[in-house]
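fwd from M.: "can u put these together and see what the complex looks like"

so here's what she sent:
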Amino acid sequence: EAGVAQSPRYKIIEKRQSVAFWCNPISGHATLYWYQQILGQGPKLLIQFQNNGVVDDSQLPKDRFSAERLKGVDSTLKIQPAKLEDSAVYLCASSPHQVHHGYTFGSGTRLTVV
Amino acid sequence: TQLLEQSPQFLSIQEGENLTVYCNSSSVFSSLQWYRQEPGEGPVLLVTVVTGGEVKKLKRLTFQFGDARKDSSLHITAAQPGDTGLYLCAGAGAGNNRKLIWGLGTSLAVNP
């Protein structure tokens, strides 16, 4: 089966600019996650969607981050305006309904804010 | 707040050596997953353990879930350079929409 697709792979922007990331999960996976990963650390959940509804966005900095999953398939994550501390890898993952099945991650988008 | 502590944080060994990575918590998890992440890629699921005391083997990798479902270990026998990467454990709490709690990872380097 095709994996989780993310784009772009790399993005360099100046602080205060805007940026958007795109994710297409595995077909049929109801749950989609956006994670932020600082180099060498574990992923930090930003937002979890179940179909097109938000299940958990408690760690999403809502003053600058937004995400949507229209039609319950692909998703976009936006940062506006970006700060230097937003430099990280943004990972998208999807899973079937039951978390025991584990997550399938995309390759991520490496964001550098200068 | 559920926390997962991984140790060691960093490990550098020679090819052929054995190693064990630990994942510990004071909380009980319904399941625990191990992932390996290579530079520039997303984490890849290695195994999910569900039952207390469960042992799963994946070639040279042996995973164990503690009897109380609070801790887990990953043992690698005769490590190879291809085992190099960041090893992450993640525990699933109770409830239907279970959020994974992630450890900070163990960065393993296997030198030829």
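replying to her w this: The longest strand of chain A covers residues 88-95.
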